[in-house]
Each structure stands twice: as C-alpha cells, then as structure tokens.
Amino acid sequence: xxxxxxxxxxxxxxxxxxxxxxxxxxxxxxxxxxxxxxxxxxxxxxxxxxxxxxxxxxxxxxxxxxxxxxxxxxxxxxxxxxxxxxxxxxxxxxxxxxxxxxxxxxxxxxxxxxxxxxxxxxxxxxxxxx
Length: 130
Ligand code: HEC
Ligand code: HEC
Ligand code: HEC
Hints:
Blueprint: H1 4-30, E1 36-38, H2 42-48, E2 53-55, H3 57-63, H4 66-69, H5 85-89, H6 109-112
Antiparallel strand pairs: 1-2
The chain binds heme C (HEC) (3 copies).
C-alpha cells in the first residue's frame, strides 16, 4: 500500500530538488564568464598605489541571482559602469553590499584591488578600457 504521508514528503523533496537544479542549470548555462577586471580609473589607482580591481563575478553569481545586480546596480556589460570609491563609500554599486551589513566594508583595499600581473584565467577584459 502507498503511504500517503511518505509520498507527500517525497513529492516535497522532489520539488525542492527540481527548484535547486533549475537554479544551478541557469548558472551552468550562463556561467561561462569569469572574473571581470575593473580598471577604467587605472590612472588614479596607480597614483594611490592600489592594483586594478579583480571582481570575482562567479563568486557573486553563486550567491545572488543575476537580477540582484543586473541591471539595477550594474549594467550587464563589461566597462559600462562608472565605479569609483566615492560611490562605493556612499553605499552605491559595490557599496550596496560592501557596507559592513551584507558584506565587509570597503576598508581593506587589497581585497578588491587584487589584480595580479599577467593573470588571465577566465578574465573578461574590455579591450577599449585603459
Ligand atoms: C554582485 C553583483 C552581480 C551579480 C549577482 C551578477 N553580476 Fe554580472 N556583473 C557584475 C559586475 C560588477 C560586472 C562588471 C561590469 C563592468 O565591467 O562595468 C558584471 C558583468 C557582467 C557581464 C558582462 C561581462 C561579461 O562577463 O561578459 C555579464 C554578461 C554578466 N555580468 C552576467 C551576469 C549573469 C548572467 C549573472 C547571474 C548568473 C550575473 N551577471 C550576476 C555584477 C554582478
Ligand atoms: C549584492 C551584494 C554584493 C555586491 C553588489 C557586491 N558584493 Fe562583493 N561580496 C558580497 C558578499 C555577500 C561577499 C561575501 C562576503 C563574506 O564572505 O563575508 C562578497 C565578497 C567579495 C569579495 C571576496 C571574494 C572571496 O573570494 O572571498 C570581493 C573581492 C568582492 N566581494 C568584491 C566586490 C566588488 C569589487 C564589487 C563591486 C564591483 C562587489 N563585490 C559587489 C556581496 C556583494
Ligand atoms: C569592495 C571593493 C573595493 C574595496 C575594498 C576598495 N575598492 Fe577602490 N575601487 C573599487 C572599484 C570597483 C573601483 C572602480 C575601478 C574602475 O573601474 O576603475 C575602485 C576604484 C578605486 C580608485 C580609482 C577611482 C577613484 O575613486 O579615485 C582608487 C584610487 C581606489 N579605488 C582606491 C582604494 C583604496 C585606497 C582602498 C582601500 C582604502 C579601496 N580602493 C578599497 C573597489 C574597491
């Protein structure tokens, strides 16, 4: 005989699994883009002595739905966003989360300004940037 209670539990579990696989399937099919180098303001970064920003896109994509960031916070195009420290400190762009509440505050420069010379692994770089 079929145990209805067990069956309904099984259905709920299946439902959850389907929901999870659906999400990861989306990430898998669109998740071919790697880290993004943010260096539009390369000149000012050199002046201050910080490296270019290596934005770990995949790291964030695993944790948030695309629509959390695109396009309310960031235009979905490499090089299309004007990001700088004032904006971040004012709680916009990266600062929407890196504010000490959702994620750590933008105090430790090297956490974001971490571009290693010669690093190319999975990096999307906008050729037009300088
Ligand atoms: C935490 C915020 C955040 C989340 C979540 C996020 N992105 Fe992005 N995305 C960015 C930022 C920042 C850039 C770089 C924009 C720039 O260069 O000005 C970017 C760039 C892009 C680009 C253009 C560069 C490239 O890789 O070709 C695409 C396409 C993109 N995102 C797609 C996605 C998709 C699809 C998802 C969900 C699976 C997603 N993003 C989730 C922040 C995010
Ligand atoms: C939607 C929220 C959100 C936005 C927007 C966002 N981040 Fe994050 N970021 C997070 C969270 C959450 C973590 C994980 C924090 C932790 O582990 O304590 C994180 C972690 C990181 C890390 C560390 C990754 C690692 O390997 O530990 C870096 C670097 C980073 N973010 C850079 C950026 C930069 C640069 C931007 C803007 C271009 C940005 N983030 C925008 C939420 C966000
Ligand atoms: C949460 C990540 C994050 C942290 C932490 C962070 N930055 Fe930035 N910073 C960025 C991003 C993103 C940009 C924009 C890069 C671009 O596109 O040119 C930027 C740009 C800059 C620029 C050039 C634009 C401007 O505002 O003048 C300087 C200089 C700079 N950062 C210095 C610093 C210093 C110094 C620290 C530490 C006190 C720091 N940053 C910490 C993400 C971060």
